[in-house]
Amino acid sequence: MSPVTRWRLFTVAMLVASACFPSLDDLTGGDGGSDAMTDASFEASADVSASDVGSDTVDAGPCPSLHGPAMVFVPTSSGGFCIDSTEVTTTDYAEFVTAVGLGAPVAAPADGVCQWNTSVVPMNNGSYNCTPDWTDSQMHPNRPIACIDWCDAYAYCAWAGKRMCGAIDGGVLAFASVINPTNQAYVACSKNATQTFPYGSTYVKGNCNTKDLYEGGTPMVGDVGSFTSCVGGFPGLYDMAGNVEEWLDSCNVQNEGGANDNCHENADSFNYVPSQGYAHCDNTDSDYRNLRSWDIGIRCCSP
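Above: the chain's sequence. Below: its structure in token form.
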């Protein structure tokens, strides 16, 4: 999907009266206070660990304890890998931005495709609905980070001691193979290609945060793990469909400096057109490497 097409999708009016449409609290059973966490509850969930979203069934296996979300082990015929239990949150990403400001290195691929990227701070100028509060970690500490480009996501995962999800055997996933058992994100979502959706083989409206829930109203991102039925393909793995898309290490290099390369994202988002997949595990999208949008975020893997 080109940025122009995506922008047209984003022109849904943000001032539609909320009383006319279901809210996230209505959809998830919340009490309206998910972003207004107390100091005690925020401290307990600052690492956005799997324990905050049902750790009694999480299989961490040999996964390391690193920056960002706790990881879930995904067994495969070749051994297995680890993947973040949730999308990276604004709180996680703010820690990274602070570290960079204090001198932490900003990792980038060796081929120079990110030389144009001069800042890892999320965009907040209003483009693609990236407003100042959208990624504010104080106002929305448990919201998935968005409004970051592919290079920002790559750098974050490296800083966290992980890597951007890509090929099971390590590194870059071939652009043509994104819906394939070699894709870490697809394997994790589909339970090793055995089911269509993260929660099973049949679509259930409302299990995940997808645009069809809003019935013509304004779609809205949810806190990580707040759609508690959007779990799988392995226990403790949340929002593998819906909420925000997640950048993948899978790009079609155009030899134009990197910014205009097409790079894949995994899964679906709260703002994706419902007719285009209903959050299948094999649903994918691609955008320019330099795109920063309100519905594209990060999930990391290891190794």
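DSSP finds six helices and eight strands in the chain.
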